Amino acid sequence: MLIILFCYILLLLVILLAIFWLTNLWVYRKFAPWVPIKRRDIERIFALAELKPNQVFYDLGCGTGWMVISASREFGAKAIGLEINLILFWICKIRQIFYGGKNLVFKFRDLYKEELSSADVVYFYGIPTKNGLVSKKLRQELKPGAKIISYTFSLPGWTPVLVDQPTLHDKPIFIYRA
User: pLDDT 10s per residue in the chain (178 long)?
Assistant: First the structure.
């Protein structure tokens, strides 16, 4: 009986892993697969973002939601995370139960279908070949003065106001203004 239960649990885990990786491959075609970033880079990003209470912060492809949770809890921003990987989205929703507040929103939505005109700060970690599509969307929708933060990859067609890379071992963070 215990062996059968173990086999069912193992099968369930294999199925969940397969769903996760297949979803990640599909998400890769849309914008980027989930890749976590280092905690110290999160701190660098928020130092550069200069978020103020009640500003609107978007994370395009929010993964497991840490950037969105940090923006809401630590800076009092209205933080919105967009994610199309269903498993990662549910991880975000579970974290929202424990860390949430009225300023924290996770949406199961394609970033290309979300209106970003209310954003004060937009953050993303996307694939360079897909950034051209994001670049066009940001140019069309963001209000003047909105800050764009791209982790690791530059944004085609934009000139950064700052590239933060303290050492050669650090990933660059590109800052743009709409």
Answer: 778 877 778 877 877 776 666 665 555 555 666 677 888 899 999 999 999 999 999 999 999 999 999 999 999 999 999 998 888 899 999 999 998 778 999 999 988 899 999 999 999 997 765 667 888 899 999 999 999 999 998 988 899 999 999 999 999 999 999 9
User: Considering its fold, how many domains does the chain have in total?
Assistant: 1
Domain, as residue range, for 6:
2-177
Pairing mode, strands 78-83 and 147-151 = unpaired
Residues 6+ apart with CB under 8 A from 127: 28, 31, 32, 153
What does pTM read for this prediction? 0.83
CATH code for the domain of 94: 3.40.50.150
